[in-house]
Prior knowledge:
The protein is an all-alpha fold. 69% of the residues lie in helices and 0% in strands. The chain is built from 13 helices and no strands. The chain has helices spanning 3-37, 63-70, 72-104, 109-117, 124-134, 140-146, 162-188, 191-199, 204-215, 217-231, 236-243, 260-270, 274-299. Helix 3 packs antiparallel against helix 4 (109-117), helix 3 packs parallel to helix 7 and helix 10 (217-231) runs antiparallel to helix 13. The protein starts with a helix and ends in a 5-residue tail after the last helix.
Amino acid sequence: MTRLERNNLFWGYLFLGPNIIYLIFWTFLPILFAFLLSFTNYDMLQHDIMKGFQSGAKFVGLKNYMLVLKNPIFVRSVWQTIYFAVLSVFITNVIGLVLALIAHNSKGKGFFRVAYFIPNITTLTSLIIIFDALFRPDTIVTDFLAMFGLPQVVWRITPGYAMNLAIIMSVWAGAGYNMLIYLAGLQEIPQEVYEAAALDGTSRPKQFFHITLPLLTNKTFFLFVTGFIGSLQVYDMVQILADFGEKPQVGGPDGSLWTVVYYIYNVGWTQNKMGRAAAASFILFLIIMVFTIIQRKLFKDQTY
């Protein structure tokens, strides 16, 4: 290496140093520590973590993983988390794309961008208060839904409805962000492609399905992957919904708001079983990895 190359390398690593140190001490080491913790019976109130196994904590092998996988609440939380993730991500992407098409093809694009994005920056507590008030008996929303046979109930405290309320809130809050990503993708598509298709007599619907959607595959893949990663880790929304109101219910009405991260929180911080909570965390990691791999396989041959 020349002197100039060594000098550039030195200053490059010097500027990267703070980020590298941060990643090592606040990301990689905690992950490694949590993985080791998942094989112990560590209890925050009984064991001093600084003393390691000398504090009384014991190596239990795969026991924590077996106990978690056999726990009916955890199994239920996995299926409810997948249900939340699949519906919220799919509906959010569909609505985000529709809003992007409206904003892209309408006058006053700036107004639509701001109007559609405002829910994304609204605080979660405010959303819960608003939606809890809307999804109660004799409101304009429940009166409309009653036309389709849905009963007039308080969704937040009714089993079978509480998780659907969380999905609606997630879609409302996330559609604006997806709209911006899709809008950026629409602006990247050359107008000449549509003009050529129109000259060939291609109808608008065919242009959408054969030109717009394929050329937005990269954006769709990004939004699906990041959406599933975030939705499979949902916690704050369901926890606040469960604790909101005069009669808080752990896990929500009849356990209908249990999610994996909500379960991890309760096992780790309420029951003080940190080893078992760490095991559940790595099971969640495997679930997220499986979903990411599946999406990568689905999109790899269609990415432009």
